[in-house]
Automatic annotation (TrEMBL):
A single MF term (Gene Ontology): monooxygenase activity
Keywords, sorted A to Z: Heme, Iron, Membrane, Metal-binding, Monooxygenase, Oxidoreductase, Transmembrane, Transmembrane helix
Coiled coil ranges: none
Topology class, membrane: Single-pass membrane protein
Identification of the protein by name: (thale cress) hypothetical protein
Annotated positions binding heme: 381
Source organism, top-level taxon: Eukaryota
Subcellular location, record wording: Membrane
Length: 699
């Protein structure tokens, strides 16, 4: 089928016969990749293997990757890593079973594949890695795949810069760059760690070791040229392809087994009969003893392709497919998902029936075109053996050691098999089984925004009186849960504190905190915990607070003196400004080591205005926070002047704080005590490269 996506013609293949012609008969002429914005950026200008157009460079990189990482011998050498990580998985699940606590199987299996990949590729324990928050790694993978798979106008309207302009306005460029910088920071940390002369001892040569070794030893006449960008590009392929697809395959397999209890009973019966009872540890040798599990995996692939549309190809010459002409430079999409559900190939294609593969030669390694989870031909996924080894061993452990049941009140009919589209296909959570809080009536697009006045806390109270103390509002496109009772607050702030203690990514707080380099607005994670630990340990401990008592006493005495003078003169007192000055006086001396009344850096009569401006700008309605889609909010904020107001406040604060830091950095400065800026500057000057405290954190 020929479709036109914008200005770009695309040929879509949806049958086994046509797929065989493209992937086998015309493989050489169809094995290049199109030049797409997302893949070009994340592959660092096609320095990887997955998205690089066909050519000598691509062949050399792929050959190296297969030899050093994906060969059968290499895959087998990593078997002990997979076994150790599966044992760790079983141990954690046993702890949950003893406590009778429910298991988030999606996150658990995601962590399993990430653990194997981190050790095999990076030489690091995923659970002990200093480079990434393991609670956020699934979000990073999802962000990257969503950004790559999202509609990018530049790819379909490449003429006259129209697509580029729309991508800028919609924020697609920014989303891609944000993901790129996150991945780049992770991989740079990994590479720096491998280059560190005092790197901790390693138990095997990982993929980064191999690539760095080739890069350092290569000569001018070598055919394989590796740069740091090549290493990062290849790591991107491994990171995105190696974590998500294996985890999703296991998740879908367990989902289908839960929906089909007879199949679950049969596969568990085979596993427990063929492996000896009371086995403490499953090994990779056990994979060959359970043929029915292999049928379950094949049927899972047939119904739930990790990548339903195989990565796009581009023709390099004129070809004919099923008698139709396809010219050079034409994009081709193979709809493997449609082939897997073709009623001409499969009896009852929508049913989960592993026994359809009994006595069938059909396999998933690219030689049978009715089942193509990994593609076929020159562009077949090179990591099949590595990925399947983890999937087989992971499922074997889950089904041998544990009996699985659905949560109370849920039947197999309640399990949703809808999918959420990204580059890979994830399960969609069935909303009907969620007991969402009640919501007041809302309007299209703006939701409940029209019901929120200048004082949101009062508006929320009025709405809660009619709707409930736990209430779901829709502010633009953003759902917000509002808590208005003591009992609900206790559940959020105590019972579920760990799961509710992060911060949202808002425009104002992101700018004022310099990209979340502060404490108050930084999302929960290792960086936030380190900063808070430092602040409490160095600045807000009991001993430190007691050392500042004399400052508070001096400033309160000064306040009394000024009020006494006003009383003698019988002149009125602006108590608001007077008390504001008291608080500012104490803060200036404790934090900045300066007398507020004698400060050279700020006008004391204007400091309250600056504080008010800052708080107003942060609390003001910012369209980007509530209409983040298609750049609409950004455009309204720009027209309304909200961006300018935030930037003006940021520059004023930055100038004040930079003056304070410059003054503290002056070697001739006199001081009567060590203030907060002194302490932070001292930490920054003494820190090593591994410390997490930086100048942006200080400001």
């Amino acid at each position: 089928m020929l479709i036109h996506l914008g200005f770009v013609p695309v040929t879509v293949i949806s049958s086994k016969e046509a797929a065989e012609e493209v992937l086998r008969t015309h493989d050489l002429n169809c094995c290049s990749r199109p030049n797409l914005l997302g893949t070009r950026l994340l592959s660092r200008g096609f320095k990887d293997v997955g998205f690089t157009p066909y050519g000598e460079e691509w062949k050399e990189r792929r050959k190296f990757l297969v030899r050093e990482f994906f060969s059968l011998k290499k895959v087998q050498s990593f078997g002990y890593i997979r076994e150790e990580e599966c044992n760790f998985l079983v141990k954690k699940l046993l702890e949950s079973a003893v406590d009778q606590s429910p298991v988030d199987l999606s996150k658990t299996l995601f962590w399993l594949t990430a653990s194997v990949m981190f050790r095999v590729a990076f030489g690091q324990s995923f659970h002990e890695s200093e480079f990434i928050d393991k609670d956020k790694v699934d979000e990073l993978v999802f962000e990257a795949e969503t950004a790559q798979a999202s509609f990018t106008c530049s790819d379909f309207f490449p003429i006259a810069g129209l697509g580029w302009l729309v991508d800028c306005i919609s924020g697609q460029h920014k989303r891609l760059k944000d993901v790129f910088f996150k991945l780049d920071a992770l991989f740079q940390h990994v590479i720096d760690d491998h280059l560190h002369p005092r790197r901790r001892s390693k138990d095997h040569i990982d993929i980064v070791d191999s690539m760095l070794d080739v890069m350092q030893k290569q000569r001018k006449d070598d055919s394989l040229k590796l740069t740091i960008n090549n290493i990062k590009g290849i790591l991107t392929n491994i990171f995105l392809g190696g974590i998500d697809t294996g985890a999703l395959t296991m998740i879908w397999a367990m989902t289908e087994l839960a929906r089909n209890p007879e199949v679950m009973k049969k596969v568990q019966g085979e596993i427990r009969d063929r492996l000896r009872r009371n086995k403490e540890r499953i090994t990779e040798e056990d994979n060959n003893k359970v043929p029915y599990l292999n049928l379950v995996i094949k049927e899972t692939f047939r119904l739930h392709y990790p990548v339903p549309l195989l990565l796009p190809r581009e023709t390099m010459a004129h070809i004919k497919v099923q008698g139709y002409d396809i010219p050079p430079k034409r994009r081709i999409l193979v709809n493997a998902w449609a082939i897997g559900r073709d009623p001409k190939l499969w009896t009852n294609p929508e049913e989960f029936d592993p026994e359809r593969f009994i006595d069938s030669p059909v396999d998933y390694r690219g030689q049978h075109f009715e089942l193509l989870p990994f593609g076929s031909g020159r562009r077949i996924c090179p990591g099949i053996s590595m990925g399947m080894a983890t999937v087989e061993l992971g499922l074997l452990n889950l089904l041998y050691f544990f009996d699985w049941k659905l949560p109370d009140g849920m039947t197999h009919k309640d399990i949703d098999t809808e999918e959420v589209g990204t580059l890979t296909i994830a399960k969609k959570i069935k909303r009907s089984i969620w007991n969402l809080p009640p919501s007041p009536p809302k309007l299209p697009v703006i939701g409940n925004l029209h019901q929120v006045g200048e004082l949101p806390h009062r508006s929320f109270r009025r709405l809660a009186e009619r709707t409930g103390h736990v209430m779901l509002l829709h502010l633009g496109f953003v759902p917000v849960t509002v808590i208005s009772s003591r009992e609900a607050a206790e559940e959020v702030l105590r019972t579920h504190d760990l799961d509710c203690c992060s911060r949202p990514n808002l425009v104002g707080s992101r700018l004022i905190s310099r990209g979340f380099k502060d404490l108050n607005f930084t999302p929960y994670g290792e960086e936030w915990k380190e900063r808070r630990r430092f602040l409490v340990g160095e600045l807000f401990c009991s001993k430190k607070l007691q050392s500042f008592i004399y400052i508070k006493e001096v400033e309160c005495n000064f306040l009394v003196k000024k009020l006494s003078e006003s009383a003698v003169d019988q002149s009125p007192v602006d108590l608001s400004k007077t008390l504001f000055w008291l608080a500012a006086s104490i803060l200036f001396r404790v934090a900045f080591g300066q007398s507020f009344h004698e400060s050279e850096f700020t006008d004391t009569d204007k400091i309250d205005e600056l504080v008010f401006e800052t708080e107003t700008a942060q609390a003001s309605f910012t369209c980007s926070d509530f209409f983040p889609i298609a750049g609409l909010g950004w455009l309204v904020d720009w027209i309304s002047g909200q961006h300018k107001r935030l930037n003006d406040v940021f520059l004023k604060l930055d100038a004040l704080l930079q003056h304070v830091i410059d003054d503290h950095s002056n070697p001739g400065r006199s001081k009567d005590h060590k203030d907060i800026v002194d302490v932070m500057l001292d930490v920054m000057h003494k820190q090593g490269k591994d410390d997490s405290f930086e100048a942006h954190n200080l400001i």
